[in-house]
Amino acid sequence: MAKMKVVIIGSGVAALAAAARLTQAGFHVHVFEKMATPGGKLSEKWIGQYRFDLGPSLFTLPENVEEVLDLFGKNRSSFSYKRLNPVCEYFYEDGTRFSAAADHTVYVEKLSEVFNEKKHTIEKFLKSSKATYELTAPVFLKSELSFSKLLFKADTYRAIFQLYKLPLLGSLNGSLKKRFRSEKIIQLFNRYATYNGSNPYSTPAMMQLIPHLENGIGAFLPEKGMYDISRTLYNLAHENGAVFHFNSSVEEIIHDGSKVKGVRVNGEVISSEIVISNLDITPTYRYLLKNFKAPERLLNQEKSSSALIFYWGVKAVFSEMHVHNIFFSDNYKEEFDHIFLRKDLYSDPTVYVNITSKECTQDAPVGCENWFVMINVPHLAGQDWPDLIEKSRKRIIAKLSRILKKDIDSLIEVEEVLTPQLIQDRTGSFLGSLYGNASNNTFAAFRRHNVRSNDLKGMYFCGGSVHPGGGIPLCMFSGKLVAEAIKEEYL
Ligand SMILES: Cc1cc2nc3c(=O)[nH]c(=O)nc-3n(C[C@H](O)[C@H](O)[C@H](O)COP(=O)(O)OP(=O)(O)OC[C@H]3O[C@@H](n4cnc5c(N)ncnc54)[C@H](O)[C@@H]3O)c2cc1C
Known about the structure:
The chain is an alpha/beta fold. It has 16 helices and 19 strands. Among the domains are: 5-43 and 62-68 and 226-301 and 439-490, 3-Layer(bba) Sandwich (FAD/NAD(P)-binding domain), CATH 3.50.50; 103-217, Guanine Nucleotide Dissociation Inhibitor, domain 1 (Orthogonal Bundle). The protein has helices spanning 13-24, 63-71, 104-115, 119-141, 147-151, 154-161, 172-179, 183-190, 210-217, 227-239, 281-288, 296-299, 332-342, 385-404, 420-427, 472-490; strands at residues 5-9, 28-32, 44-47, 50-53, 81-83, 88-91, 97-100, 220-222, 243-245, 250-255, 260-265, 268-271, 274-277, 306-314, 324-327, 351-355, 369-377, 412-418, 459-461. A hairpin with a 5-residue loop joins β6 (88-91) and β7. α1 packs parallel to α10 (227-239).
């Protein structure tokens, strides 16, 4: 029997996972990618002698990649990574320092010592974070957004009977304030809201599940850098028959109002009964699915934050920093009010510095480091970006120089910038938002598009703007969910 064809638009991490899984299941997969290389946001670039991962820097749940390797019977060691210790270095303006150890006992002891909180209170919070993840992941994150499917899952009933363990009311910040006295520890745990581009002062307390991923299960780094995630998935799909068409921007998804018929690329029609869009859901409906009614309620949700990134090759080594480093703002509430309410930038932003060369020595010349310097910013809303970029650069350099006690500006050897506009232009993310919709209210998680269309047969979706959400682990889940949905329907 001839293999069924699947066309995938885009080659972000969710699409690569779906392409590999569908190839292995016997589908004939064609991926059309508008850029010259695979990976989307999860790409890399050399600037002079420095290598940079362009987007994601924090890697959790590596078993998502291993699961795909296992499907092909590949040795897991072909994708090597290590668990980071310390997980993150935190710097506060008043000189307070906290190094988050990977070891649970040391982590709790140090949190207690530095922030003067009882160990028991910290343990209780981390236990609650773990319970929230373990109860919601099988029911929500690893399942399609479908009432009928959830009805037949044992995990659904397990979660229902343990609802009392879940923080169902209030915001993340509100629930942290009830547990802790130290403003600094509250700020540290509030930061996890930014992992899906949300505001800790309005995102639901359920988001407390994220610290468990990083501290309970672990933060990891592939030995060849983050891009090795894309490379590994691409190689698996490609070696097993998926055909990749680079520099090929899809212009239209062809349909007859009830069924998908194919796509149009460079004026040429490519027929296929099954099409997966890995492109952000908003441009998929607005520009590719012409003459088709868009799900306005889902598309009009508040968007997540964006980011401003400076890639700096730095001619020095900073022993007090590790792979992940946070330099906190002195007024977190003001910072998020600026990002989400005023849609502008706060004068004292929290600065994140990622340095992969701490572990991947090939990423920078000897005696130098590759700094990925990022601040959270609002999505595109008519701001004067050239002015904001110039101001931000000065503010970031002043803050880092102040805290690290070195003139950072004079150490920058090479430099490039990634802006919300470039994020939108390069990857199609609507308004440059990093994670599709924000999760700034209780129902936001349920207002993401499912991986399959109920109205157009053969139309599927995967990636950061659809269920279960943005970030590498959730995109890998959506890649799996979409492959399972297609197998269920067509095999
Ligand atoms: C700066 C930054 C930092 C981040 N940090 C983290 C982090 O630390 N940890 C984490 O887990 N996540 C992080 N994320 C989020 C994470 O990168 C994304 O959620 C994830 O990579 C999105 O993958 P995706 O599958 O949705 O596809 P995307 O990466 O969005 O790729 C979509 C692809 O579609 C292609 N495309 C668009 N239009 C067309 C068209 N018409 N025809 C053909 N192809 C098209 C694009 O070129 C692109 O390759 C970060 C993101 C950014 C930008």
